[in-house]
Amino acid sequence: MKENKVIIGTRGSKLALWQAEWVKSELERIKPGIEVVLKKIKTSGDNILDVPLAKVGGKGLFVKEIEEALMRGEVDLAVHSMKDVPTELPNSLHITAICKREDPLDAIIISQKSKIKNQKFKDLSKGAHIGTSSLRRSCQLLNIRPDLNITQLRGNLDTRVRKLDEGQFNAIILAVAGVKRLGLQSRITEILSPEISLPAIGQGAIGIECRINDEFINTIVSPLDHKETSVCVRTERAFLKKLGGGCQVPIAAYARIEHRAKSTEQRARSKDSLLITHHSLLIIDGLVGRVSGEKIIKGHLEGKPEDSEILGVKLAEDLLARGAKEILEEIYRFS
Description:
alpha/beta, about 35% helix, about 20% strand, globular
């Protein structure tokens, strides 16, 4: 790193660049006069578009090459979608900041050619053709609607929407966060409740990865860490790490903090999402399912925010004891 110059490593998709540009503007706000530039890096996940992620490993496909550039000193920090970041990082790197989370839920977008406007998930016709690249999403949707025809849909967000509009699908499922960040929220037909589609681990959150020994970068990035988001995402990641799962397995988790303030003054102050008090409650829901959607093991735990990673591990252990272990072994045996 040259003095007063920071290089951000990022993927080149519109969504990745939006996220990197946002971090760039925040760093420039925090440290006026600093020069921040973006370096686009093509990852394995960007190069392999004709094969389902589950069949090419999944873990680290969207971060590996960026991490390598970071370790070589070619970039000073990396900006990722946290749902793409493996739970195991290279020894010299760490996640310095997890930025304030956008809506973590999934959305359904109906084809503009549909004769029924504002069609909801429950209203989809029998055998409707749904596009998604996520086993997590397809598992949960098939569990509710086994009649649906769900097929592989890869590519950047704008590419997926284009394929929908070309008539290749009746509907597609996307993360609300990405749709909003690209200004396409008007296309959302319905935001799916967690009861229908529990989100991916870290969905909606931007993570900043740095070299552990780079004191300057760690110092200027640390103000971007959003305490509440960080607690929730780290809880979800502890859950995933204990399960040892990746893109080959339908795994989902959603952690959030409820502020149970007792006085009027505390209730007013708790609107500040950075405020976590002894009245705050950390809640996490998680699941593991068969790819077919025939069986899903769900769990729910509540605890103290300071016990975040312990709570994630406990929930994973609960699911493993109630049948998730057999599901995971079955999937890995045939993958």
